[in-house]
Design goal:
This protein has 407 residues and is an alpha/beta fold. The protein has a domain of 172 residues: Carbamate kinase (3-Layer(aba) Sandwich). Helix 1 links the parallel strand 1 and strand 2. Helix 1 packs across helix 4, helix 7 packs antiparallel against helix 8 and helix 12 crosses helix 13. The chain is globular. The structure holds adenosine-5'-diphosphate (ADP), aspartic acid and magnesium ion.
Length: 407
């Protein structure tokens, strides 16, 4: 007997037939003698619609009310799945975040999980019931509903797996594993049987949304065994494992892209000590995460400062910067949301030179202009015009020898 967390994403829960399919998969694991807890997302498209309603009413909406709205999608699917399970004879009960409880901090819209209580759910599982837990949501210290950031149901699954001491955390989705890049963009992407926590963390953080970044971080910290597999086919999936469980370490193991960022340039910022601290301090205070940063020194003692922020945070960033204009003294704010970040990731980069050169040359050959560059020990990222996303990802996939046989 194993104790398993099974997580089903939005496409897997998209309509009643699919919810019945999920219920049958859960029943199979229960019939095999396992203790199962399920975590679900909202139906595909629901969260996007809920987010859009908040944005349309006010781009600078109150994040506490945003959470009240966007957390509703998962309330629907936990109830429906519990009914579907009961209908096929599997005792099941739905759980919202506050009921578990999944405790978080105050950072509404992207709250961090501080504690998950597993005892009650363990007792229910031992009594033969399947808890169906709402992904994406928790409860803030003041008792209000909080959400964990987009894609946060993966994190819900991993923290639950850690709290109930599960043997495995199976993430069921609409692809059958983790690939060298998004298989929807590159049909010749190859499925990876195993990938290290470090590489998956880096890929997720630069946009491979098959797993949410913080879920990988948490899995790595809490030693949760994560497997990604298909909701629709019975095939082996991909395992996220320790680096030393992987025999062959390719130089580049994957390519990711993100269209979720926007570029901001502050024109003619005075070039004096403390300016960067002021600008980025302001953004941090407005709860805006900054990613890539470049600064060009002008001849006249002023500089242009360019950086990227989450596209969803762009209005908040512009607002915070605009208010601080007299204090900082820049000439203009230019915002460009039509950008994409393309990244190559691989542990082998630690010991091999030339990965960045291959990337720059490949993009140059395709006539793609690089706007910003950033690197880490196992990653190189570039910012390009969004229209070039697919061309860039495909060309790089080929250039690093990642292409599998033609589909
Ligand atoms: P879910 O709703 O099940 O959480 P997501 O849409 O969040 O599903 O994540 C699955 C999607 O991630 C796939 O449909 C695929 O397009 C995308 N994806 C991006 N990069 C990768 C990758 N390297 N391997 C597999 N899928 C990827
Ligand atoms: N429903 C949430 C979202 O779309 C959480 C998730 O699906 O993981 O972001
Ligand atoms: Mg997801």
């Amino acid at each position: 007997m194993s104790r398993i967390v099974m997580k089903f994403g939005g496409t897997s829960m998209a309509d009643l037939d699919r919810i019945r399919n999920v219920a049958n998969r859960v029943k199979r694991e229960v019939d095999a003698g396992n203790e199962v807890a399920v975590v679900v997302s909202a139906m595909a498209g629901t969260t996007n619609q809920l987010v859009k309603w908040c944005q349309d009413l006010s781009p600078l909406h109150d994040p506490r009310e945003y959470d009240v709205v966007v957390a509703t999608g998962e309330q629907v699917t936990i109830g429906l799945l519990a009914i579907a399970l009961q209908t096929i004879g599997v005792p099941a009960r739905s759980w919202q975040g506050w009921q578990v409880p999944v405790r978080t901090d105050h950072a509404h819209g992207k709250a961090r999980v501080t504690e998950v209580e597993g005892e009650t759910l363990i007792a229910r599982m031992q009594a033969g019931e399947v808890p169906v837990v709402a992904g994406f949501q928790g409860v803030a210290p003041d008792g209000r509903v909080s959400t964990l950031g987009r894609g946060g149901s993966d994190l819900s699954a991993v923290v639950l797996a850690a709290a109930i001491k599960a043997d495995r955390c199976d993430i069921y989705t609409d692809v059958d594993g983790i690939y060298t890049t998004d298989p929807r963009i590159v049909p010749r992407a190859r499925k990876l049987d195993r990938i290290s926590y470090e590489e998956m963390l880096e890929l997720a953080s630069v946009g491979a949304k098959v797993l949410q970044t913080r879920s990988v971080e948490m899995a790595m910290k809490a030693r949760v065994r994560v497997q990604v597999l298909s909701s629709f086919e019975d095939k082996p999936g991909s395992l996220v494992v320790d680096e030393d469980e992987i025999m062959e370490k390719p130089i580049v193991s994957g390519i990711a892209y993100s269209r979720d960022e926007a570029k901001v340039t502050l024109r003619r910022v005075p070039d004096r000590p403390g300016i960067a601290a002021t600008v980025f301090g302001l953004l941090a205070a407005a709860n805006v995460n900054v990613d890539m940063i470049v600064q060009n020194l002008g001849a006249d003692g002023s500089t242009d400062m360019t950086f990227t922020v989450g596209r969803a945070d762009l209005a908040r960033a512009q607002d915070a910067l605009d208010k601080a204009r007299p204090e900082v003294g820049f000439e203009a704010i230019l915002a460009d949301p039509d950008v994409a970040k393309i990244s190559v990731v691989g542990i082998g980069m630690r010991s091999h030179a030339g990965v960045a050169t291959t990337m720059f040359r490949t993009l140059a050959e395709k006539g793609i202009n690089i706007q910003v560059i950033s690197t880490s020990e196992i990653k190189v990222s570039v910012l390009v015009a969004a229209d070039y996303t697919e061309l860039a990802v495909r060309a790089l996939h080929t250039a690093y020898g990642l292409d599998g046989p033609a589909a």
